[in-house]
Amino acid sequence: MTLPPYSTWLEIDLEAIRSNVRRLAHLSGRPVMTILKANAYGHGLVEVARAVRQAGVPWIGVARVEEAFLLRQGGIAGDILVMGHAAPQQVSQAAQMGLTLTVYNPELAAAFSGQAEAAGLRLRVHAKFDSGMGRLGLPTEEGVDFVRLLHSLPGLTLEGVFTHLAEADDPVQPSVNWQVERFTALVDALASAGLRPPLVHAANSAGTIYFPHARFDMIRPGIAVYGLQPSADAPLPEGFRPALTWKARLASIKMLPPNHGIGYNYRYRTTREERIGVCPTGYADGLRRKVGVNFVLVGGVKVPVVGGMCMDQCMIQLDGVPRAKLGDEIVLIGRQGAAEISAEDIARVWDTTNYDVVCGLTARVPRLYLNT
To answer: For the chain, what are the domain ranges?
Structure first.
């Protein structure tokens, strides 16, 4: 096969993303807010945004105003919610761009109101409530008074209320039902007071799949959109597909004698004559500096990374792939022949999550988009 002209690159299957989004919408029977924070979990912010819009997604969620600005600059229209903190000084530009910001305490709401009124603009907002996560948001018990305050502040238009589930990826935990009960009590109280806004949302990927009563008016999936498992205890249903493959090309092959040091500080020494290759990918691309746990695929065979991880390169032991030659494809995440290394596989040996693995893929790695 002809490889692209890069030393290492990502291939992002946008049709897999569109298919995953449609499955989530069908499964839940709800509109979808696709979460695209952290460069769309490493997959590429603007390109993934275009794909999910093609799939009919009405809302996009990001963590920061700067991410929303990049989407608008990339030509992404429609509803975008900034779910994290925004500085009051960003209100005017956000309102001009038609963005929706999150308010989660009276002080921030008043500051947003003042900025919007001074600019002669109206700012769309969603109110966030803490139902048990312990992060942003007022306690749900204070929700009715806070929503009344929001309606009284000039320059603000309240569109929705939301919360976040702490343990939806562990379906046996009772905290999810407790959080949903607390949040539902707030929503019911708002409805009784004539204050319920048009949109109520709470369910992340695992919440969408495993807790139907958390779906409310709209679901808010992130990790499942990219075909990655919410957790080992909360796997995706059949039919979801990972969108990301990480590849490189074999840059060097050497036969080295016994007791030859490999890489910085000689963290690996050959025990016999060994065939050592170089993969032009390192920790500056997103590989972790873990010794003795990393593997890649060459010729459909899983081979170990040996020695310490360099910034831009790592060395691999090729004795099990005698036909490997310069320029051959290396797969770091994804499938090659019958063999596969998933983001979940890497997360296990790095003692982290698949979220961490893909979000850590740095911007200098080119992204190639398939099925645009």
So the answer is: 14-226, 244-341
Q: Are 184 and 162 in contact (CB under 8 A)?
A: no
Structure tokens at 64: 């920061």
Give the sign of the dihedral formed by CA 62, CA 68, CA 72, CA 77. Answer: positive
Question: Using one digit for the tens of pLDDT, what is the confidence trace for 86-97?
Answer: 999 999 999 999
Residue with tokens 């840059």: 251
Alpha helices for 167-300 (secondary structure H): 175-192, 205-210
Report how far residue 230's alpha carbon sits from residue 176's, in angstroms, rounded to the nearest whole number. Answer: 15
* Overall average pLDDT of the 138-159 stretch: 98
Q: Which two tokens stand for residue 18?
A: 């569109």
Looking at the predicted structure, is the pLDDT value of residue 107 above 70?
Answer: yes
| Tokens describing residue 51 | 């794909």
**CATH code of the domain occupying 244-341:** 2.40.37.10
Q: Which residues pair with 301 in a beta bridge?
A: 298
Q: SS3 string of 124-151? A: EEEEEEECCCCCCCEEHHHHHHHHHHHH
pLDDT in tens, 295-333: 999 999 999 999 999 999 999 999 999 999 999 999 999
Residue of 254, 264, 266, 325 marked catalytic: 264
Distance CA 74, CA 51 (A): 13
Question: How far apart (Å, rounded) are the C-alpha atoms in residues 186 and 192?
Answer: 10
- Annotated active-site residue 264? The verdict is yes
Topology of the domain comprising 14-226: TIM Barrel (3.20.20)
Active-site pick, 37, 41, 283, 355: 37
